[in-house]
Write a structure and sequence with these properties.
This protein has seven helices and 56 strands. The protein is mainly beta. A hairpin with a 5-residue loop joins strand 52 and strand 53.
């Protein structure tokens, strides 16, 4: 495959700068470059001018080379193109590993307008290993122009990239059992993704979801829950939906509303089997239609009101598309479609039309223009009337925390060496180790921070009782008697620390009298150029042991198998975990200057923006670099105003965040609307089962795309051969 070179021209007064373009050929390991030269005013000898021209030429050449790599390794699902991607990366590695890793150097010639070589300068392009492995490559362009030399470099990590994991749910249940929710409030989407039939979920006591809901199983509703369909937090241009694979049974007041006008593709409720109501259900509102689909309907009791169309279509097995309407007060502000038989026992008002494929019993009880009632109709099931598909299964997880703890495959994990160091004796550090070093005790940090989002930075000082600067165990040996209630602990992630892995010693139990406040500051300088996420992250991991055995990928399910993971139990009262950049904005100086104590309510004027767009007057955190990885049979109980800003990946663990959380937090939606909440967590919670209590909220933010969570889904067949551009350097 032959690639067309890209050309870039940069003009200066009196000169047209030549541009070097490096092209990597797919089917060879040769590097070629062509340079177009028009004219140069040789009388200019100013050193600054010559250095600038040398730099512009070198950087333009390097940029073109990197652009070509991006073109050759662009994401694709086409098998032929994937093979070409692999070949391109293999060729790049061959160039880098030549000459014992010193790489391959190509000299670029400059051709004058007469086609002959013009000896005014040279550029060398070198592709070499960075370190001992061709996985890490540095591409250097060095240009000498009229005696002045400038050099620039790009640092690249090559790797097969699994299909990135997408995290769209604030709370996601992976287990095959049902669950009950009391006063659960979710800002973002919620899902139960295990496609096991017969599960029953229960909503009670004002449970609310402000987003989409997807669950495999049946939902039983009582005591005024609410689902408010909001714009998608993944794509603000899309809306949201409710999908229930089996039955919906409403025994006491259920509201499903929307904040947006209906459009094709969203604002619908899709029930895979039967809808039953016995007391008050509202769907949609004036100007905000929500369509409803099911395979059998039995509307009874008191009050059914809908703005939108009601569809009853045939389903699998005994679901014949029949509908019975017998509620005291029932109105459909839209049209009714029934693929089976319709039985109306009490007055039913329909503002649109009624289409029934079978027979209608009680036609005289339908309040609708007579000409709009159609018996024996043929339903098109097209466009708006097409029943949405219930996915056969959700995007399943392949790798589990045990894989991240123990795997030697760097395409799966980056933290296994640090995790295993706790068990082979090479890392015996604990929190108490840092407490024994006076440089980490009573630590004061002052940093220039843009608090207003205007670019103007002001000095912000925050103080901590203890600072953690590398991987260690949070053991039971730290004497909180010496620290007092609400000790502030800073975890400081940097380039020198790399990923910080904090093992939670099994049985760690802290009562409300200690209530530590952990603040994670991430200042690693290697940035993912696509997402803006920093390369290194902070992981809190379960004490699952070193006896874990990875038994390979199951040939049927495609999931990783493991055994030997130790059970762990943790109990925290009043534990709070913050991202530093949020913490210093959320609280004022009177809080930041204390090394201990409950931080209390966020300061007046702080507004948290959990959406994907900027909203004036709010703070939008970056993707969270705080990750909790809990292995199989781990149980976390967090109570008494505990709060977590971070993501939990615990697909075989129990997470109980039964707490009133952080009070007085103001959150905004993409339209600038505000709501004050009691907040338990900001992130995503993925667990086998999840427990909550009290009226508290869980707010969505994505985990960092550089964390190991990106590898949890997908597999070998989804891999693309690509690279990460770590950084540019100018020497």
């Amino acid at each position: 495959m032959k690639n067309t070179p890209k050309r870039k021209q940069r003009n200066k007064p009196g000169v047209v700068l030549f541009t070097a373009v490096a092209v990597m050929l797919m089917l060879s390991i040769l590097l070629t470059a062509t340079v177009s030269f028009v004219s140069v005013n040789r009388t200019k000898t100013n050193d600054n001018y010559k250095s600038k021209q040398a730099y512009l030429t070198a950087s333009s050449t390097l940029e073109s080379f990197i652009n070509q790599i991006q073109t050759d390794t662009a994401p694709t699902n086409d098998p032929t193109a994937k093979a070409q991607q692999k070949k391109a990366i293999d060729n790049l590695k061959k160039l880098a590993s030549a000459n014992s890793g010193k790489g391959t150097t190509t000299n670029v010639s400059y051709n004058g307008s007469n086609g002959k070589s013009d000896n005014i300068g040279t550029t060398k392009i070198t592709v070499a290993q960075e370190g001992t492995s061709a996985k890490y490559i540095v591409v250097t362009c060095e240009t000498t122009y009229l005696g002045k030399t400038e050099k620039v470099a790009a640092h690249i990590s090559t790797h097969p990239v699994p299909k990135p994991a997408e995290y769209t749910n604030t709370i996601e249940l992976v287990g095959n059992g049902g669950a009950g929710y009391d006063n659960l409030n979710v800002i973002g989407d919620m899902a139960g993704i295990n496609n096991t039939t017969g599960k029953i979920y229960r909503f009670t006591n004002n449970t609310s979801i402000y987003g989409s809901y997807l669950m495999y199983g049946s939902l039983e509703v009582s005591t005024q829950p609410l689902i408010m369909l909001k714009p998608s937090l993944v794509d603000e241009k899309q809306g949201s939906t409710v999908t229930i694979s089996e039955n919906l049974d409403v025994s006491n007041e259920f509201h499903i509303n929307s904040t947006m006008a209906r459009a094709d593709g969203y604002n619908y409720v899709n029930i895979g089997q039967k809808l039953s109501t016995s007391n008050h259900m509202d769907v949609g509102s004036s100007g905000f239609d929500v369509d409803l689909f099911c395979c059998e309907a039995n509307i009874g009791g008191n009050d059914y009101t809908q703005y939108g169309n009601f569809y009853v279509y045939k389903g699998a097995g005994a679901y014949n598309g029949d509908a019975t309407f017998g509620a005291n007060g029932q109105t459909i502000n839209g049209s009714l479609y029934v693929e089976g038989d319709l039985n109306v026992t009490k007055s039913l008002k329909v503002t649109g039309s009624v289409y029934v494929t079978g027979t209608i019993t009680g036609k005289d009880k339908i309040v609708c223009t007579a000409s709009n009632i159609h018996e024996g109709a043929v339903l098109s099931k097209a466009g708006r009337d097409a029943k949405p598909q219930i996915p056969v299964s959700a995007d399943a997880y392949v790798y589990y925390p045990e894989d991240f703890f123990m795997s030697s495959d760097t395409n799966v994990t980056t933290i296994s060496d640090k995790y295993q160091a706790f068990y082979d004796g090479s890392n015996t550090k604990t929190f108490n180790t840092f407490a024994s070093d006076w440089t980490n005790v009573d630590y004061t940090l002052t940093e220039l921070i843009d608090l207003t989002g205007t670019g103007a930075k002001t000095p912000v000082t925050s103080r901590y009782k203890l600072r953690i600067t590398s991987s260690c165990t949070w053991a039971k040996d730290l004497s909180f008697n010496d620290y007092g209630n609400g000790s502030r602990i800073l975890v400081d992630v940097s380039d020198s620390s790399g990923d910080i892995v904090i093992r939670l010693q099994n049985g760690l139990n802290l009562g409300a009298e200690w209530s530590p406040v952990i603040v994670v500051r991430n200042r690693s300088t290697i940035i993912d150029t696509t997402t803006g996420d920093r390369k290194y992250n902070c992981y809190f991991v379960s004490d699952s042991g070193s006896a874990i055995t990875l038994n390979g990928i199951d040939s049927v399910t495609g999931k990783s198998q493991h055994s030997g993971s130790s059970a762990c139990n943790y109990s925290f009262k009043g534990l709070k975990v913050f991202d530093y950049d949020t913490y210093v904005r959320m609280f004022d100086s009177s809080v930041l200057n204390n090394t201990k104590g409950n931080p209390g309510l966020p300061q007046s004027g702080f507004v948290l923006n959990h959406t994907s767009v900027d909203v004036a007057g709010s703070y939008r955190p970056k993707n969270s670099s705080i990750i909790f990885l809990f292995g199989e049979n781990t149980t976390l109980n967090a109570t008494d105003q505990s709060f977590f800003q971070g993501s939990f990946y615990s697909p075989q663990a129990i997470v109980n965040i039964a707490t009133s959380g952080l009070g007085g937090l103001v959150v905004t939606d993409s339209a600038g609307g505000k709501m004050t909440v009691q907040c338990c967590a900001v992130g995503v919670v993925i667990a086998n089962s999840f427990g909550n209590a009290n009226t508290a909220f869980y707010v969505y933010t994505k985990p960092s795309t550089t964390s190991v969570m990106q590898n949890a889904k997908g597999g070998k067949d989804d891999s693309a051969f690509g690279y990460t551009l770590d950084r540019y350097d100018h020497y």
